[in-house]
Task: structure prediction
Amino acid sequence: MRVAMIGSGYVGLVSGACFSEFGHTVICVDKDVAKIEGLKAGRMPIYEPGLDVLVESSVKAGRLAFTTDLPGAVEKADAVFIAVGTPSRRGDGHADLTYVYAAAEEIARAARPGTVVVTKSTVPVGTGREVERIVARMRPGVAIDVASNPEFLREGSAIEDFRRPDRVVVGAESEHARAVLRDLYRPLFLIETPVLFTSLETAELIKYAANAFLATKVSFINEMADICERTGADVHDVARGIGLDGRIGRKFLHPGPGFGGSCFPKDTRALVAIGKAAGAPSRLVEATVEVNETRKRRMAAKVIEACGGSVKGKTVAVLGLTFKPNTDDMREAASLDIVPALQAAGARIRAFDPEGMKEAKQLLKDVAWCDDTYQAIQGADVALFLTEWNQFRALDLDRVRSALRAPIIVDLRNMYAPADMAARGFDYHSIGRVRVRPK
Ligand SMILES: NC(=O)c1ccc[n+]([C@@H]2O[C@H](COP(=O)([O-])OP(=O)(O)OC[C@H]3O[C@@H](n4cnc5c(N)ncnc54)[C@H](O)[C@@H]3O)[C@@H](O)[C@H]2O)c1
Result:
């Protein structure tokens, strides 16, 4: 099959590279000239483990190429995927569909009869129908089918997620579109991945419902962590105690500074808007959004409290800036709320992130950027863990203690055991865990 992937960001690039690994011939399109030039020269625009190797081998095999020429790519394709961004619209939380509709128009102009246009971007219910209308208006009478194939990959393990997904969801209403999608995902049929064929609307809603459910789990355990802090219970044990119940499941029960990233915040806001517009508001999802926003704002207060009530003139070493480990993605990362709030309270910030510094430098001001963890904590008053990168789990704690001016650690990812940290002489503050005073 010949595939054109419109948009070569996280989703477009990973999906394109993985489809080419499945044996299809893929051309990834982007209107960002620098991104495409970089890709042609073998430079990845994002940090995603394993992506560079996969892209290089697919390009060498002649199954993956990059271009800014959308019509040229589309006119040769059997399937054209729309994988452009759908950010939150300012003000009302609706998904901004400008890029999707602009891409749909460009695709409609160039597509051959028989082409299937597939929306991979996360889009509100009804978007696929609108894409159908755009195509019908621009190419009346030409057989171009529209399908929906929402993507569930996670940044940081995106390639493995694409190769071995829990399920594939396909909203397609013609036999031709279903056959094309079945062909594209043939290697997954062979490993018995469940493939769910639905209507366009259902496929679109499944994606939002999945993200909102997971985000709700996160907000739920964060609220349980707050209750733990006030009652002396331990959220780690609570999460395990409920997560071992098969009906609940252990995943997404890790308390933290609030969810961020390119998907959960914008998708929960969009689902709130979708529900309201449909006359069926979701109070649960509204609460999830609100709990999360309040939480991010409150986290700076937690650091200030750990420092004895003020950070004025104090140095905070921030470790981890990205919204989660194994990515350089800073979109809606908790650090973007917490760092400015600490600065406003008078703190000086030194910071280190293994992969996110380039992005972070564009978004955070007046930060002393450091080359590694130990440089960041040298002489600082407090170390603040914001992202649970593996390298932060295996620090030389004796070195950490002697580098910090006062051995205060605020760990918003619960990477260490409070009793161990206390035994090592740290004033260690975690989320929702029983506090153990230093020896
Ligand atoms: N990032 C994730 O983990 C993830 C996971 C699942 C689903 N999604 C969804 O996938 C979609 C894309 O997300 P992303 O994170 O890959 O976005 P991104 O911002 O990283 O990439 C989007 C790319 O599309 C390009 N683009 C926009 N309009 C174009 C056009 N007309 N022609 C060619 N290129 C165009 C942009 O230049 C950009 O490079 C969003 O709807 C998102 O919600 C993202």
